[in-house]
Amino acid sequence: MKLSIGVSELATFVHRRGDINYRFEDSTQMHEGIRAQQQYQEQQLKEFQHYSREHRLSQQFVYKDLQLNVSGRADGILLNPTTVVEEVKTTRKHVENLFQSRGTEHVAQARLYAAMLLTQETEVQDCEVKVTYVHPDTLSSKSFKETVDRDELKKFFLDTCTHFASFILAVMQRIELRNTLATTQEIPFKTVAEEQRNLARRVYMSIRDREDLMFEAPTGTGKTVATLFPAVKAMGANLVDRVIFTTARTTGQRVVHDTMKALSLSNEHVRSIVITAKDRICFTPGATCAPENCEFARGHFDRIQAARKDLLAHPNVDQKLVELVAQSHKVCPFELSLDTAEWCDIVVGDYNYVFDPFVALQRLHSRLFKRVGVLVDEAHRLGSRVADMLSAELSLELLRRVNSECPLQDIRSITKKLIQWFETAASNSLSNEEEFEISVLDEKFWQLIEAFIVACEDVDVESTKESVFRCWSAILRMHDARTRYDFESYICLMRREEEDLTLVLRCIAPASWIRATLKEYSGSVRFSGTLSPAKVFEASHGVSGPFVRAQSKPDPHRFGVMLVPDISTYWNDRERSINEIVRVIEDIRSSTTGNWLVAYPSFEYLERVFDVIENRDAEVLKQKANMTVEERAEFIEWMNEPNARIGFTVMGGVFTESVDFEPTALAGVVVVGPSIPPSSLELDKLRSSTELGFELAYRQPAMTRVVQAAGRVVRHANDRGIIILIDPRFTRTEYQQYFPMHWDAQFVKTSQIRNALDQFWKGESVSATSHTK
């Protein structure tokens, strides 16, 4: 076995010690660091005739069956009159404090270079090892030096390589065993539908050929195992090294974890981990990541290697296990999960760990895991979620809070100028609308944004007022969005709300970013129950490739779809539709003892119907805006007890997507209208930007919510249920193109609903006035 590793990576892995301390994370950008380092090296060349910069060194190390090739470029080397090896770092931080925090790994880098140099320079008996910190603006420098003899440097190199090699060899041996078992591994379920096998085969082929596959399959077809199983098989065939399973919501991650537990029963050498968001797993919520504020940050790097080893002993890691191990070793649970993920085969996490430019996990592409594939669950959400990640907002109210609360004069001075810019932009606008477009953000604005960032570089931002930290975070997002800003992909808006103004840099076309991101991976599979028509989602994702629809045949005895065209839910018709909807609800309640979800396009519409039906003594519970986690759980628990109950929900919310109710709980779902989003400057610009503009801006988001809401019923092999779609628009081809293949929709007038339901519950197919397909 052979493996190459850089000196910097080796030194950090073995020798980093001390605390997690956000104050000493990188304070310079890459181009600044390179420029400052080059200028410093040029100064050294002028001062020392024999100074050599970017001096390449390499050495082999053999540990059991592993040959480790260590290499890198030493920043500076001097052989005459004395031997010096120098490691140069650029920073704006306080140098003594930085060296105290990160010095062990920086010195280790210099020592490793010195050891390799003295292997070549056999006459040299000792070496000055020097770490130099250079300020990128002033080029002032400070060095920390030590003289180390040949024998000590040799021992340091051997001990460092042995420590790393023993760990990495164990990982490589595990991967070999994983691959051997994967070649003969079977789907871990006794009953496997043929369509599920077909999907698994197609996913395997896609990984093999490094395609960007998109497939649509209804709920209950086993999409999770149909993607994870071929991913493990592909590892066994040496087609891919790691797969990232991305989800839009945390509710989907439990299913992935349970599936991996089933797969690991026949392959104990597969490692999977679920990454939980930092704010949900932190042991000291609200505290900054600094040793004086968090006991788990204090000394974290002294204990992380033992904690990681313990966690990797388990095949399947979820939040509870991470917390248990982190508590026992007294380390940060979030950082432990990220560190462990670097050595796992299946990494499960939110979309942002792949697509968000601020939090994407670049470390998941590593020397041992170079070929990484991506599985994108609930891919109908991908476009809108990535658009959110690439957008930025900054409010006048927040700037005013910073101006009144921040104790630092430099930051207050810049904030005042930003406030003036906001007020001028609003007064110069000819529009009195609550929202208006700004065609160009002038250079003065961007200069103030950059000045604010620079002013915060030497400030303990997280320990200042909460308003300063929030403003700093928002401005960083704004500055980052500028790098991608163009007229076609973004719209710049100013929104008025009472006395506040909010500047919005909104991404309306994330396709190019999604496409560029997926190109960094060894193929991708995007899947959902709602990806028709394919051309719309391909345009949204910016990725073309094969599209597969699961060949699920309609079963009218198990699953009925009724279209009710004689109740209009257009805005102007909503008032007179209320009593008609109430009559439909009364009919469905009396037809069966099962419960029903009724999904509305807005809370306002929901409340108007609820006010009427509540007075009729019906057992109805409604979704509220901003429900707590406990209130959501109570709603689901209430709906899981079949008793002819009615749950009022809003489409696109937590109860109509990514929620599994008990198999026998729901008799059906009623969808009230197609939930077309209200017109806005943002959506209207997207509408006019392309031939598919109306689909992308209005119809696709609306119909995706409809199909997802309908998907709460008939989610298991033995379920039976009904979907009722109320509105004449559902009878049109342009709306029905979004219907899943297994829907066999029938027209049913309001007066016929009760009779049609009776037929269905007796085991007969719903009779239709006319057929939609």
Walkthrough of the structure:
- With 773 residues, the protein is α/β, with parallel strands linked by helices.
- It has four domains: 168 residues, Lambda Exonuclease, Chain A; 235 residues, P-loop containing nucleotide triphosphate hydrolases (Rossmann fold), CATH 3.40.50; 118 residues, Fumarase C, Chain B, domain 1 (Orthogonal Bundle), CATH 1.10.275; 209 residues, P-loop containing nucleotide triphosphate hydrolases (Rossmann fold, 3-Layer(aba) Sandwich), CATH 3.40.50.
- 43% of the residues lie in helices and 19% in strands.
- The chain is built from 26 helices and 25 strands.
- It has an eight-stranded parallel beta sheet with strand order 10-9-11-8-12-17-7-18, with helices on both faces. The protein has a seven-stranded parallel beta sheet with strand order 21-22-20-23-24-19-25, with helices on both faces. Strands 1, 2, 3, 4, 5 and 6 form a six-stranded mixed beta sheet that branches.
- A hairpin with a 5-residue loop joins β3 and β4.
- The C terminus is likely disordered.
Entry summary:
With 773 residues, this protein is an alpha/beta fold. An 8-stranded parallel beta sheet has the order 10-9-11-8-12-17-7-18, with helices on both faces.
